[in-house]
Amino acid sequence: MRPHLFWFLVALTVWLTLVGWRSESVPEKLSDYGFFNGNPAQQQPVAGVVPYALNTPLFSDYAEKLRFIKLPAGQEVSYNDTAVLDFPIGTTLIKTFYYPNDFRDLTKGRQLMETRLLIHQTEGWKAFDYVWNDEQTDAVIEVAGDTKTVSYIDAEGHSQQHAYTIPNLNQCKGCHNRNEVMTPIGPSVRQLNGELVYSGADSPENQLMHWKRMTMLTGLPALANCPKIPVWNKPETGSLSDRARAWLDINCAHCHNPKGPAMTSGLNLSLSETDPTALGISKTPVAAGRGSGGHLFDIVPGKPDESILIYRLASTDPGEMMPEIGRKTIHAESLELLRAWIKAMK
Fold this sequence. Notes:
Blueprint (H helix, E strand, L loop, with lengths): L2 H21 L25 E4 L11 E7 L6 E2 L13 E9 L9 E12 L2 E9 L6 E3 L4 E8 L5 E8 L5 H5 E2 L2 E2 L6 H4 L2 E2 L8 E2 H7 L3 E2 L21 H12 L56 H6 L18 H12 L3
Parallel strand pairs: 3-14
Antiparallel strand pairs: 1-2, 2-4, 4-5, 5-6, 6-7, 8-9, 10-11, 12-13
Helix pairs in contact: 5-7
């Protein structure tokens, strides 16, 4: 396909999406939904909008995230311990991306970038993206995507500045589709089985127990029988292998699984996968092209620098890097974890 024709089709798709959504009377501003008390930038949820957190979240160029869920009145979620929870129609998942001005001192404020909504409608899940204005007073719906420059002081005290990409809404399907059907990625029992300090509480509470107490979750067994994914950067929560697999599960497995957009790669990086070849160990790539970096196998046991997995995660070249969307920077800390994991392989 000729380049000009390709970009024309992309622009046409975005335009048709925009026209279609305008006809559905989608709220123009985030504040129109009434998710938050007072100034929406404070992210103080109203009754019925419940915060949650994941044990090991997706990496998004070092952005922090505030997550909330709003279930339809009187509805509960049924427990399952193998997949993302099956949320009822009418559920809204809310995720705000932000950067602290100084990661060492959160009292110095933050810059809100975007708030993404996943809304479970009768015809399925739909994604909506709201971009925060420079005044940090509200967020406005964005369909075509955008790129902003973000500046902050990182946890080591270094000044950072880089591009932050807001995806267009068709790109959401690139991660969220399973067999061409959009679905949430993060909120599973194993990810929610951790503690969170709720507003007005003196001590943290297990999220699954909180959801049960709030009549949001039904069928919960004893916590000892619930799966729990480790926190990728906390050795006390799991072994080296378990933490590396946790990171790959949330960052890669939404595409690299038998029903995901990257199913043709032959890789399955889901936490439940036990076949070494499906995990990429001593496996030749199907169609990595120059993304292989000249390496022969996805993972070479004991040799991280000869592994395509490491090469692609360490790249920022759009034709080589993985994930393909959602990042512009290199996640140095997870690379260190994954190098150690591969180096320890026999």
